[in-house]
Amino acid sequence: MFYGTVVWDPWLIVAQIVCIQCLYYLSLGVFMGVLVGTRVNKMSLVYFFDFATVTLSTVTGWCVVVSFLLSSVAGAGVLLYLIERAKKCLDFSATIYIIHLCICVLYGGWPSSVTWWVVNGTGLAITALLGEYLSTKATISYGLVILNSIFMALM
């Protein structure tokens, strides 16, 4: 957990981005399947990538919004285990949502819904801030364990 000099390893960074993106969509798929899949006859990628489905005017739209927000919480947990450094959480969180924006633009055009932007901006904030909090807390806990073991060895 404690890091000295930072080694530039682009393959590690690419692998982390791919893993985080896949796990983000996996968690989004699970939440969509539970919340949206019970309300619609047929699940499709429309609910993932079309900005028009992110709406507060229907119950299904609310389920889509909640799915995105829950997957942002899951994304913070993924950052804790794959990144482990609080100072990198914002970078990787932004990468998740920038890639998601690019896929949405390719799938359904530029998102013109204010709700889509608010939900994804909130998701980015939740992922980054909660990921930083969890990583910092884990680092502090690990440091206390090390200090405790050193103290016990000296006694």
From TrEMBL:
Protein's membrane topology: Multi-pass membrane protein
Keywords linked to the UniProt accession: Golgi apparatus, Membrane, Protein transport, Transmembrane, Transmembrane helix, Transport
Pfam families registered for this protein in UniProt: SYS1
Protein name in the entry: Integral membrane protein SYS1-related protein
Family: Belongs to the SYS1 family.
Example of a GO cellular component annotation carried by this entry: trans-Golgi network
Cell compartments where the protein resides: Golgi apparatus membrane
Organism in which the protein naturally occurs: Artemisia annua
Gene Ontology BP annotations: Golgi to endosome transport; Golgi to plasma membrane protein transport; protein localization to Golgi apparatus
Transmembrane portions of the chain: 12-36, 56-82, 89-108, 138-154
